[in-house]
Write a structure and sequence with these properties.
The protein has a single domain, classed as Orthogonal Bundle (Helix Hairpins), CATH 1.10.287. Helices cover about 80% and strands about 10% of the residues. The protein has two helices and two strands. Helix 1 runs antiparallel to helix 2. It is rod-shaped. The two termini are about 15 Å apart.
Length: about 120
Amino acid sequence: MNNISPKVQNQLGMLQQIQQQLQNILQQKAQYEMAVREAKRAQEEISDAAEDAVMYMSVGTVMMQKKKEVVNAKLTEKVETLELRIKSLEKQEKMLQTKFEQLQGQIKAAIEGKGAPNAA
C-alpha cells in the first residue's frame, strides 16, 4: 500500500479538489441563507411599521429615505434572488457530492484490489 499507482494518486488529488469545492459551496450557501434570514427579519419589522413611517435604505455607502413599499419590494427581490442562488448551489452541491462518492468508491476499489493479492 506504500506504493500507490499514479492513477490513484491523481484520483486522490481530484478527491481533495472536490472536497474543497464542496466546502466553498457550503460556505457560500450559509452566507446566502443568513442574508435571507436578515432580509426576512427586516420585512417583518417593516410590516409592523405605519405606512407613512420614515424609512431609510442603504444604497452603496449612502442611506436614502424611501417609501415603505419600495423598501419592502427591494427586500422581497433580494430574498427571491438569494433563494435562487441557494437552489443553484444546492444543485452544485448534489452534483459534487455524487462525484465525490463515485471517486471515493473507485479509489477504495483500487486500493482494496491492490491489497487483496498481497493478503492471498
